[in-house]
Amino acid sequence: PGKKVLIVYAHQDPKSFNGSLLKIAVEELTKQGCSVTVSDLYAMQFEPRATRNDIVGHLHNPEAFNYGVETWEAYKRGGLSKDLVEEQKKVQEADLLIFQFPLFWFSMPAILKGWMDRVLVQGFAYDLSKSYDGGLLQDKLSLFSFTTGGSKEKYAARGDIRYLLWPMQHGIMHFCGVKVLEPHICYAPMHVSEDKRKEMLTAWTQRLKTLWKEEPIDCSPEWYFK
Amino acid sequence: PGKKVLIVYAHQDPKSFNGSLLKIAVEELTKQGCSVTVSDLYAMQFEPRATRNDIVGHLHNPEAFNYGVETWEAYKRGGLSKDLVEEQKKVQEADLLIFQFPLFWFSMPAILKGWMDRVLVQGFAYDLSKSYDGGLLQDKLSLFSFTTGGSKEKYAARGDIRYLLWPMQHGIMHFCGVKVLEPHICYAPMHVSEDKRKEMLTAWTQRLKTLWKEEPIDCSPEWYFK
């Protein structure tokens, strides 16, 4: 109660299964007394491309455009574009970040990857020698909640599903100092019965009820590749 | 000689180190008698977002928008948007796909991820039970060539760099039936001496000279997580 949650949501259709998972999270967390903010990326027509437009005013080095350097410098002088500043404010205030999306190609949809690329700039999310356990977004939790097209068996046949979590959970969240809760994976909701889908929605509600008691995972290589 | 190469390139500035790597590849491969096409994503202002705009005309199911289903159906009836059809034509004709980009967050920049999300649709790149060794883009090679911000030692300290190649090489290329050559990684070009940078550029030229003699990697979990 009193906790702040930011849900970054990447599905085009509110009537989708991802839309139902979002709705459940908003309702359940609000019921618990949390304050919930949603960044509905498609509805916002969020820009995924990392370009010069993200820097207001002059460039640090107009001779050779380096996005990482330019956004770092712009962050320090308060010169990042408005949409980024707004997202950073939401992140700063949040105790928990939930990412809700359909898995696209073993990873996030580009619109969500663009959110990571553009919002989590140096100076804000990490800095020189301030990364991993020293990252700048400490005392925050994150949770990747996603749906897949293929069944659990199809994924397991080629390798552990955890392999594909490494870049997202370790490479991004852990790098910024954000703790990571167990991912929430709904396998192939499009290909199961209506009953099974309802079961999956109920399971999400149930998990959210005790979410704040969960321990973060140990985000080391062993968790992923043991 | 006579081989066709598509380079999908994701850097904002031609004067960047990525720009130099691109230039070298175009020159060296052209010199070999290859026909080289470049998709310069930022220059094209390539759209990374997967939306309804990618389908020309009616939707298969207007009640619930599912991007995978809609692009599959649109592909079958020739109803994909023009920019996607053009990229698919380039892929179809290519013997080798080179992806040239700076690593962003253990993965591709969003603009390149959007190219994967939108171009490699079902029916074109894979299909029901046509994936991995049965994928639809067989007899093609791919190569991920990228630069990093951090040093080789920094990456190695947290786990093998190969861990982050799994979603890109296995989850995308291998899934579509495309064979994968060893990645080409230039570590931290921004933080090394001018001499070292020149060395890295020369190494890329040298590698390209004998590229067609290379054997693809064995894209199994063992290669990544041994």
UniProtKB/TrEMBL annotation, chains A, B:
GO molecular function, one term: metal ion binding
EC identifiers of the protein: 1.10.5.1
Entry's Gene Ontology cellular component terms: cytosol
Cell location: Cytoplasm
Function: The enzyme apparently serves as a quinone reductase in connection with conjugation reactions of hydroquinones involved in detoxification pathways as well as in biosynthetic processes such as the vitamin K-dependent gamma-carboxylation of glutamate residues in prothrombin synthesis.
PANTHER family according to UniProt: NAD P H OXIDOREDUCTASE-RELATED (PTHR10204), RIBOSYLDIHYDRONICOTINAMIDE DEHYDROGENASE [QUINONE] (PTHR10204:SF33)
Official protein name in the record: Ribosyldihydronicotinamide dehydrogenase [quinone]
Lineage, highest ranks first: Eukaryota, Metazoa, Chordata, Craniata, Vertebrata
